[in-house]
Amino acid sequence: MRRVIFNQKGGVGKSSITVNLAAVSASQGLKTLVLDLDPQCNATQYLLGEVAEYAADKPELQPNIGQFFAQTLSLKGREKPLSEYVHPTRFENLDVIPSNPELGEIEHLLQSKHKIYKLAAALKEISRDYDNIFIDTPPAFNFYTLSALIAAERCLIPFDCDAFSRRALYTLLENVGETRADHNAELEVEGVIVNQFQPRATLPTQLVAELRAEGLPIMQTHLGSSVIMKESHQQSMPLVFLAPNHKLSEQFVALFAELLD
Asked: Whole-structure pTM over 0.90, yes or no?
């Protein structure tokens, strides 16, 4: 199954949700791939640690998804399959295709050359090797996000419980609907993932109830907030491996089980 985690709003936990759902998948014996399309490289660094950190005096991590897209602009030589850009992680059954900050520099060239379907074809081919593929996207509706939506079968939408996020959610759902109509009839919104949920606060509970009453596909499992997520980032270790008995880890396991159902 190819899933894209998408929200045009930054700071909603896209990368954390992507990596931790992928880690749960891998921990259950499923061959799993994370594809990082965000130039900020958060998912890449979460999984690979210091080796994936970019600096002016440090060579970039290669191969990466930026090189995959760059090769599609060249008419010279053989195009390498997406499988040649995969890096193993230290976690069994879990691989990653790293992002690169230079993705933004070639985006306009990819758009002008109409390469929007290139990723979809490549992911369909590599899907034979994986049970689950999770795609992290930039916090914008751009070439890379559209490429991911065209390549995916399901879309998961992280959601913070506030009025601004609610308004943005409607626009986001319209964008997904247009992508389905114009490019990818297989694409479905699998669910809206409520993140940083405070069950004892009135506003979040009321907001979630209203969205559910509107018929939106709100996932039953909500993700809470905890300092352990920051510890997980710092140690480059997803929660299911760092603290499997923690409440937030159990919520990710429950969320993944909901996806399987």
From this structure: yes
